[in-house]
């Protein structure tokens, strides 16, 4: 039992050692990149900017002619 | 094989616990040091979202109990859904027709997923299993079903990582597992959560060796699929994490929780960078997904609504009403033209 507790604590500590060793960047830089990605893709985002015309919406209402 | 004690001092529970405490504090300090600004502040200069014209376009009726999960086909037209009624249904979302209805040997089919080829679906739930069904129009799809993997508790989520040959599952047994579809062999096991895994998602990179998991232990973990190791962990949620989703940029993950909040965790800043909540929103979030640019975050709630958040300004831009019970699952179609939602009201809806 003691051995398995030691084993478990070793795993927890080793995990924390790995996580503490990773490189981090400032939030300001990280969010700048997210904003850049979004800005570059916004014009293709139909749920955000809509369709150029309802005709190109694959889920438009069926027209009464059919 | 000499064991010279000088290089490895004896580790005791006490020394390891002490070191763990010190590491936790160091981690927190490091993260705070780099916390130089908020996302909403940086996004302040951006235009607000004023055009929102998302409407209900289709209602898919056929399940006889709660819809629990759904997934778009890569063809952007079909949807697979699974339900508490023990059925998996393949829908043509354009026409609302049912193309297949498969009865599972269990109720509460909590997970279903399309393979990248579109020719295969996987599902499972309270049977603890993940079963794949090759899709063909000429015969009963259950004739060719194949059980790929078995957990020691219910299977809550599944996803094909980039090919039809492997499937990644999450389970109530608190682990995730990677299986070989052909042989049913367990390729990798992922231990790290201390409670039920509720949701998993793959990083959107071509190499695709990273995935995220969310759990009832309130934690969000990032995994390396090859090594099986947890590489990052995020805490912050105050209750079960029901849904996790990578931002299309691959640099962040969004989460939805029973604590009535959605959050955004940035992998490179290694911390939470946004929280999406309002005082008036008190019900849990079951499912989240991004629009293709990542500007919108859709979230399905227990109060029957879908809230649409501006990911950057951290404000709600719109509310989608329609379902008559909890919204249990939602997903943006692969080309980003539509949003599917599934509910405890037995229906699925398509919004565009």
TrEMBL record, chain A:
Membrane topology designation: Lipid-anchor
Keyword Lipoprotein belongs to the record: yes
Span of domain G protein gamma: 2-63
Entry keyword Kinase: no
Gene3D superfamilies reported in the protein's UniProt record: Transducin (heterotrimeric G protein), gamma chain
GO cellular component: heterotrimeric G-protein complex
One MF annotation (Gene Ontology) recorded for this entry: G-protein beta-subunit binding
GO biological process, one term: G protein-coupled receptor signaling pathway
Highest taxon of source: Eukaryota
A Pfam family the protein falls into: G-gamma
Primary location class: membrane
Location of the protein in the cell: Cell membrane
UniProt keyword annotations, A-Z: Cell membrane, Lipoprotein, Membrane, Methylation, Prenylation, Transducer
InterPro entries for the chain: G-protein_gamma, G-protein_gamma-like_dom, GGL_sf
Alphabetical list of CDD domains matching this protein: GGL
Family: Belongs to the G protein gamma family.
Record PANTHER family: GUANINE NUCLEOTIDE-BINDING PROTEIN GAMMA SUBUNIT
UniProt-recorded name of the protein: G protein gamma domain-containing protein
Automatic annotation (TrEMBL), chain B:
GO biological process, one term: signal transduction
Annotated InterPro entries: G-protein_beta_1-5, WD40/YVTN_repeat-like_dom_sf, WD40_G-protein_beta-like, WD40_PAC1, WD40_repeat_CS, WD40_repeat_dom_sf, WD40_rpt
Gene3D superfamilies recorded: YVTN repeat-like/Quinoprotein amine dehydrogenase (2.130.10.10)
Coiled coil: 10-40
Superkingdom as given in the UniProt entry: Eukaryota
Species whose genome carries this gene: Exocentrus adspersus
Keywords: Coiled coil, Repeat, Transducer, WD repeat
Family: Belongs to the WD repeat G protein beta family.
Name assigned to this protein: Guanine nucleotide-binding protein subunit beta-5
Organism lineage: Eukaryota, Metazoa, Ecdysozoa, Arthropoda, Hexapoda
Pfam families: WD40_Gbeta (PF25391)
CDD domains from the UniProt entry: WD40
WD repeats: 60-101, 148-189, 190-233, 234-275, 285-310, 320-352
């Amino acid at each position: 039992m003691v051995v398995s507790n030691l084993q478990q604590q070793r795993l927890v500590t080793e995990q924390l050692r790995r996580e503490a060793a990773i490189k981090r960047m400032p939030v300001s830089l990280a969010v700048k990149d997210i904003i850049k990605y979004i800005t570059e893709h916004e014009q293709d985002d139909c749920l955000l900017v809509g369709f150029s015309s309802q005709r190109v919406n694959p889920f438009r209402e069926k027209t009464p002619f059919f | 094989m000499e064991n010279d004690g000088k290089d490895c001092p004896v580790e005791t529970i006490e020394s390891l616990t002490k070191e763990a405490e010190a590491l936790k504090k160091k981690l927190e300090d490091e993260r705070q040091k780099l916390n130089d600004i908020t996302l909403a502040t940086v996004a302040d200069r951006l235009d607000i979202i004023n055009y929102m014209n998302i409407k209900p376009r289709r209602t898919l009726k056929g399940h006889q109990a709660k819809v629990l999960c759904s997934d778009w086909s890569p063809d952007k037209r079909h949807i697979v859904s699974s339900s508490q009624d023990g059925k998996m249904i393949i829908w043509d979302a354009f026409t609302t027709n049912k193309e297949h209805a498969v009865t599972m040997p269990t109720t509460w089919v909590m997970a279903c997923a399309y393979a990248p080829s579109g020719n295969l679906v996987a599902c499972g739930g309270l049977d603890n299993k993940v079963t794949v069904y090759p899709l063909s129009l000429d015969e009963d799809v259950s004739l060719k079903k194949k059980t790929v993997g078995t957990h020691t508790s219910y299977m809550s989520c599944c996803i094909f990582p980039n090919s039809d040959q492997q499937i990644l599952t999450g389970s109530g047994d608190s682990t995730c597992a990677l299986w070989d579809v052909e042989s049913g062999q367990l390729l990798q096991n992922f231990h790290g959560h201390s409670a039920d895994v509720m949701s998993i998602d793959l990083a959107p990179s071509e190499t695709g060796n990273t995935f995220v998991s969310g759990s009832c232990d309130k934690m969000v973990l990032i995994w390396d699929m090859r090594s099986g190791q947890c590489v990052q962990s995020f805490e912050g949620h105050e209750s079960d994490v029901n849904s996790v989703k990578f931002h299309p940029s691959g640099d962040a993950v969004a989460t939805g929780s029973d604590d009535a909040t959605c959050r955004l965790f940035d992998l490179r800043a290694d911390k939470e960078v946004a929280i999406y909540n309002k005082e008036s929103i008190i019900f849990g979030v079951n499912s989240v997904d991004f629009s293709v640019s990542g500007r919108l975050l859709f979230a399905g709630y227990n109060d029957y609504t879908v809230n649409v958040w501006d990911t950057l300004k951290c404000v709600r831009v719109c509310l989608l009403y329609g379902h008559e019970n909890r919204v249990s699952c939602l997903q943006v179609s692969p080309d980003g033209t539509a949003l599917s939602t599934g509910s405890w009201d037995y229906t699925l809806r398509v919004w565009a």
